[in-house]
């Protein structure tokens, strides 16, 4: 699927931003008009044009708010938040670039301005975690104990994006939702400089502990969904945190190791750091996807060199781990996933728990990574699966 750009990375990220339109995160014309102004493959052009659009929509939100137009203000704040996120996306090659933090903060602050204008109660929460805390949002339908879905992102998502990526759909279907940013993500990497870790159970267990303090949560019906790299992190957590009633890998991921990045047929000595660094720099110069992936990896894993990034991602495998999962597991796959082709089936085959494999195809428009472009279809199918799992559990005494 190509959208405006021939460059697959630019096309995909435009599709990702546009995909949030059904949940208030984008307007189609705004996204297309912005895309047409961007110079193909140019990270600076991408930033400048998306930032310009975000600023314009942000100003519209402020004007509507000043006039007491709650719905208009909310809609514009939400779109501005998503557009600021998109503008910041390719800036991670220089973590000291002041625009990165400034633009991310605007994405966050515009979302915060939308919160009191929403139709559901939304709380900004801090989840205790290893002497510090993880920032999150708790969305609730009402005060009654309800099934609750935890959602976290992956390699590059933010907590604000997760509203469009799952929380809104959960609320529509009667689920409470807790979204949060773990190590390597959002505020945790940008403000606290805490990098990714592979043993995600040490992240999810405090999150489940937190939910057990909330009277609005049906404690036997807590599910977890991980998106993108979260398709590795969530199953890893479910293998050791057995209070989860279900786990969703969107999309499934069995290994995430930068040592697998070399193209087939490439002759490079991975034991020679200088040669390897030269090899990856050449790849980055000729491929925007590789450039972004390595830039973001160095940022989120706090790796100074590519060999160090390879070393830090070595533990990211579910070999010998997937078979420890006990709860029902849903593994999703996008037919034309250009990031993790073949990985969902590897995960699915390694599972010994009750399991379901869910394929999204080009015919239904859901073939791109994490089904961007078909989120309404994705949520329809996934939540119907989750409803069936949850309906099989009786509500306990709180």
UniProtKB/TrEMBL annotation:
Keywords: Hydrolase. One of its GO terms (molecular function) is hydrolase activity. Its EC number is 3.4.-.-. Gene3D superfamilies: acylaminoacyl peptidase, alpha/beta hydrolase. SUPFAM superfamilies: alpha/beta-Hydrolases. PANTHER family: CONIDIAL PIGMENT BIOSYNTHESIS PROTEIN AYG1 (AFU_ORTHOLOGUE AFUA_2G17550), DIENELACTONE HYDROLASE DOMAIN-CONTAINING PROTEIN-RELATED. This is Alpha/beta hydrolase family protein. It comes from Paenibacillus oleatilyticus. The lineage of its organism: Bacteria, Bacillati, Bacillota, Bacilli, Bacillales.
């Amino acid at each position: 699927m190509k959208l405006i750009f021939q460059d697959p990375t630019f096309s995909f990220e435009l599709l990702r931003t546009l995909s949030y339109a059904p949940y208030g995160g984008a307007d189609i014309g705004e996204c297309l008009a912005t895309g047409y102004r961007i110079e193909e493959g140019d990270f600076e052009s991408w930033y400048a044009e998306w930032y310009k659009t975000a600023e314009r929509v942000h100003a519209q939100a402020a004007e509507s708010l000043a006039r007491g137009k709650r719905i208009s203000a909310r809609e514009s704040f939400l779109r501005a938040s998503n557009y600021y996120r998109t503008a910041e996306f390719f800036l991670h090659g220089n973590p000291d670039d002041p625009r990165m933090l400034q633009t991310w903060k605007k994405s966050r602050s515009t979302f915060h301005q939308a919160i009191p204008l929403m139709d559901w109660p939304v709380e900004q929460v801090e989840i205790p975690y290893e002497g510090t805390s993880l920032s999150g949002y708790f969305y609730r339908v009402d005060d009654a104990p309800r099934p609750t879905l935890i959602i976290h992102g992956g390699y590059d998502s933010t907590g604000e994006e997760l509203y469009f990526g799952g929380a809104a759909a959960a609320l529509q279907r009667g689920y409470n939702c807790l979204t949060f940013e773990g190590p390597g993500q959002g505020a945790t990497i940008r403000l606290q400089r805490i990098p990714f870790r592979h043993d995600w159970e040490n992240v999810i267990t405090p999150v489940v502990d937190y939910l057990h303090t909330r009277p609005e949560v049906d404690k036997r019906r807590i599910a977890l969904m991980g998106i993108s790299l979260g398709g590795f992190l969530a199953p890893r957590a479910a293998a050791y945190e057995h209070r989860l009633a279900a786990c969703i890998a969107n999309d499934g991921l069995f290994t995430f190791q930068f040592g697998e990045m070399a193209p087939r047929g490439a002759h490079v000595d991975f034991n020679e750091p200088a040669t390897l660094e030269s090899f990856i720099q050449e790849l980055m110069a000729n491929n925007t996807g590789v450039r972004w992936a390595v830039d973001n990896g160095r940022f989120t894993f706090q790796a100074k060199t590519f060999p160090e990034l390879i070393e830090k991602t070595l533990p990211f495998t579910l070999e010998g781990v997937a078979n420890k999962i006990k709860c029902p597991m849903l593994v999703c796959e996008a037919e034309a996933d250009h990031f993790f082709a073949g990985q969902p089936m590897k995960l699915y085959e390694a599972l010994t728990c009750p399991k379901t494999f869910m394929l999204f195809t080009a015919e239904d428009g859901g073939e791109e990574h994490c089904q961007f472009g078909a989120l309404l279809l994705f949520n329809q199918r996934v939540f119907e699966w989750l409803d069936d799992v949850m309906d099989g559990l009786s509500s306990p005494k709180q």
